[in-house]
Specification:
Length: about 400
């Protein structure tokens, strides 16, 4: 498949067909495992840990045609979980695939913040919704829509982060500029990225601040805090004329001084979206660590790189086999952890690499395995270590402590 993707323009039709095949695999996690009774299994789940060490998880529940965001918690390190509890009184459509799942974060005083994409009637349209609890998850206020623009267009693939002062940032993929360009009969590549900010604990949001024009349409947005506490977004961008590499920008509470920087340099030219967003983390010294999917020549797959002291990206390293996908990265002091998903034809495994010296040396191994449908792997920094969180259809939500001492 990787060779087909990199053939000449004369094979453009084959290239697009291969990219669409990759879309299906990336979203469904191998069709033979993620299809049940003719329907795709949506296992998209976000796990977070609070200041007391309790794990919380948000996901989607379907009851007939009704859909809800549900919340669970675990007081024993993920060995057992409470029954799913609905956070909305009224059902509404919920996106919960691998790239577009409900998100969960905590406020500075223990508030629970949840964002999710609500699909609308027209295909590929949606709203970014937000729900909060001010009493530690006992009760939740009614959902609100984050963005001021209410056109029935794409507002999808939300990402959520809280800075150290308690500001809530929510970023999403938005098609308003593409729609406006089409009305003017002008060309517009891809979509755009927007974000909104709440400075009152989620009671209201300001913004519809634009991060950039010409993002890829269906790849998740990575958000991470720099050592100075400023949030940074990384996303798959459409560089002219049609290079699907990555960009990043630091976000501010008022949209001022946004500066786009290039974050990957693979020169992947493809007129399609691979449904495969990046992951981003920063070390205490400001070193940037990132993982992403790309086609580098004929050696496509997932890659990891960090930056040198001057901020320049070091040479990327390929992770896993040609089937590797959906990598994540987390950093705690000098410890750097990578994890990714890999299918061998019979089962899906999560493989990992760990460095205790900031990425200079590594050890690696298999962390978990399942034979059924599964979500993408996510790494979570806790007070004591970095853990793997992974939801599978057979085993449920799993917390894997497999990386050893820092």
């Amino acid at each position: 498949m990787f060779k087909v993707l990199h053939r000449s323009i004369a094979a453009c039709c084959l290239l697009i067909a291969s990219a669409l095949s990759l879309d299906v695999r990336a979203q469904a996690g191998h069709a033979q495992h993620n299809m049940a009774a003719g329907k795709r299994v949506e296992l998209g789940t976000t796990v977070a840990v609070d200041a007391d060490g309790r794990y919380w998880a948000v996901s989607k529940e379907s009851a007939g045609d009704a859909q809800y965001v549900v919340l669970q918690s675990s007081d024993d390190g993920g060995k057992s979980w409470t029954s799913p509890r609905r956070i909305q009184k009224e059902p509404e459509a919920i996106s919960a695939d691998g790239e577009n799942r409900p998100k969960l974060a905590f406020g500075t005083h223990g508030q629970l913040y949840i964002s999710y994409t609500k699909p609308l009637a027209k295909p590929y349209t949606g709203e970014i919704r937000f729900v909060r609890s001010d009493d530690g998850g006992k009760t939740f206020l009614p959902p609100l829509t984050v963005h001021a623009n209410r056109d029935e267009i794409t507002h999808r693939f939300d990402s959520l982060i809280v800075d150290r002062s308690g500001r809530i940032y929510i970023a999403w993929i938005d098609k308003r500029d593409g729609v406006a360009a089409a009305a003017r009969k002008e060309k517009y590549s891809g979509a755009a990225l927007y974000y909104a900010v709440s400075e009152d604990g989620g009671a209201s949001f300001k913004g519809d601040f634009k991060i950039a024009d010409h993002s890829c349409e269906c790849c998740r947005i990575a958000l991470a805090l720099r050592p100075d506490g400023q949030p940074v977004a990384m996303w798959r961008h459409v560089f002219a004329p049609n290079v699907r590499d990555h960009a990043m920008a630091a976000l501010t509470p008022d949209e001022k001084a946004l500066h786009l920087e290039r974050a990957s340099f693979d020169q992947w030219r493809i007129d399609a979206c691979p449904h495969h967003g990046p992951s981003l983390a920063f070390g205490d010294d400001g070193t940037r660590h990132q993982v992403w999917f790309s086609m580098k020549g004929e050696d496509g797959g997932i890659f990891y790189a960090n930056t040198n002291p001057a901020g320049k990206l070091n040479t990327p390293v390929k992770l896993g086999s040609a089937n590797a996908e959906h990598a994540d990265v987390a950093v705690d002091g000098r410890q750097v952890v990578l994890a990714w998903k890999q299918f061998d034809g019979k089962a899906t495994a999560i493989f990992g690499k760990i460095s205790n010296d900031g990425g200079a040396t590594w050890r690696d191994g298999e962390l978990a395995r399942t034979e059924g449908a599964s979500d993408q792997p996510r790494l979570l920094k806790t007070a004591s270590d970095i853990v793997l969180t992974w939801r599978t259809q057979a085993e449920g939500i799993r917390i894997v402590h497999a990386f050893g001492e820092k």
